[in-house]
Amino acid sequence: MNLKFGIITLSDRSSRGEREDLSGPALASFLQAENCPVLKQIILPDDESALRQILMAWSDGGEIEIILTTGSTGFAPRDIAPEATKAVIQKEAPGLAELMRVESLKKTKHAALSRATAGIRGQTVIINLPGSPKGAVENLGFVFPLLPHAVQLLHEDPDSETSH
């Protein structure tokens, strides 16, 4: 199953061209290696309203099955990814965020500071990932094996039970 992805990098500095976005391209490389197309990719400032608008447009467009955000999940005053995500999802998917934190804690105690969340809007899964390229790719790797089944369930695929 070739899942269709969108990637949103959240960074004030990268959105202004002051710092290269490394996390978005790292995620795109991971997905390319898994034969998963990245249909849309954008860099946004840490702006909750802008993120909400993109999350809704991409989810409601019906083209993208999984939206990954990278960055803006920590304690800094401008970190807004979890709040924007929670404002647009219709259902939470706490197990995905919990899995990422549990596995990340095996690598760094700083994982306990992640406020990343995950959820569902329509037939699209939205997952917040850390802002560092290494953290973003590692965390995607933790949940990636679950995503084909998640999308099958969202699409009410009658074969979804065969993958158990």
Task: Indicate the topology.
Elements: E1 5-10, H1 12-15, H2 23-33, E2 38-44, H3 48-60, E3 66-70, H4 81-88, E4 91-92, H5 94-105, E5 118-121, E6 124-129, H6 133-143, H7 147-154
Parallel strand pairs: 1-2, 1-3, 3-6
Antiparallel strand pairs: 4-5, 5-6
Helix pairs in contact: 2-6, 3-4, 5-6
Question: How would you describe this structure to a colleague?
Answer:
The protein has 164 residues and is α/β, with parallel strands linked by helices. It has one domain: MoaB/Mog-like domain (Molybdenum Cofactor Biosythetic Enzyme, Chain A, 3-Layer(aba) Sandwich). The protein is built from seven helices and six strands; from the N terminus they run βααβαβαβαββαα. The chain has helices at residues 12-15, 23-33, 48-60, 81-88, 94-105, 133-143, 147-154, and strands at 5-10, 38-44, 66-70, 91-92, 118-121, 124-129. A six-stranded mixed β-sheet has the order 2-1-3-6-5-4, with helices on both faces. Strand 5 and strand 6 (124-129) form a beta hairpin. The two termini are 15 Å apart.
Summarize the structure.
With 164 residues, this protein is an alpha/beta fold. The chain is 41% helix and 18% strand.
Q: In this structure, how is the largest beta sheet organized? A: 6 strands, mixed
CA radius of gyration is 15 Å
Q: Count the helices. How many? A: 7
Order of helices and strands: EHHEHEHEHEEHH
Task: Give the name of the CATH superfamily.
Answer: MoaB/Mog-like domain
Low-confidence stretches: none
Number of domains: 1
Average pLDDT figure: 96
Q: What best-fitting shape do the alpha-carbon axes yield?
A: globular
